[in-house]
Amino acid sequence: MKLVAHMIVAIAMFAGYSVEEPESKEVSSAAQTLEKPEEPTISGLTEERKAALAQKFGLKKPGTSAAGRVSFSVDFGISWSAPEVSFNMKGIANQSETAVKALLGTPIKTETGEWTLHRPEEKTTFTRHVYAAEIGEVKVIFIKGKAVRIEVKPKEAFTFPDDAIKAMRAAGLTVRDGLEPESGGPHFLDFAGIDGVYAVRVVEDLEGSPGNIGYIMIVTADRYT
Question: Cβ of 111: how many Cβ atoms within 10 Å?
Fold first, then answer.
């Protein structure tokens, strides 16, 4: 009888374990789900940060309240996946005239002049070629045989300053999410730390289409500012 009793207890314990095990796993899984931190996401700038940027750089857009709160949406923090681009602005930097011609074709306009370099200061000649590219008009200044200043006037309309990052990306530049301008003014924004070039400037089109971006320009080194 004792042997039977022990067997009954053992069977009951085994049966209880078999029934409770899935429940234990389910609770454990749920607990892990609750305790697991959320995946980091990329979010836009806060309204306060947008207002601070607008005040810092003197940006004025319709919708600014009397209290100074800015209602425009600055596109400095959107989530994105790298688009396929047919133009690579950085790929032209420091290239020769021959190499740029192979990329953009024969210039539609050419002019020459004198440029004053900085640090150390010296005067030198420059050649500026204008190309008709798929993205729009491209102006390239060559000094001592290299492309040191590249200016792109996109055909596509980009709003200033909201679409600054979009416009730079359209020109083939690699711009990280949330990048803020390093300096600027009411009609231009200057960015640093993009693709290893010295500086990138985004300028409003005051003459042709105020409120839109007129051109994006990169400068390869401080000597050519």
Answer: 12
Q: What is the pTM of this model?
A: 0.67
2: left (phi over 0), alpha (psi -120 to 50) or beta: alpha
Higher pLDDT, residue 94 or 23 = 94
Dihedral, CA of residue 61, residue 66, residue 68 and residue 72, to nearest 10: -30
- What the block records as the tokens of 177 is 């999410």
Residue 140 · residue 87 · CB < 8 Å? no
Gap between the Cα atoms of 101 and 96, Å rounded: 9
Cα torsion through 67, 70, 71, 77, rounded to 10: -150
pLDDT above 70 as % of the chain: 67
Give burial (CB, 10 Å; 0-12/13-18/19+) of 191: buried
**Count of Cβ atoms closer than 10 Å to residue 54 Cβ:** 21
Give the separation between CA 89 and CA 119, rounded to whole angstroms: 25
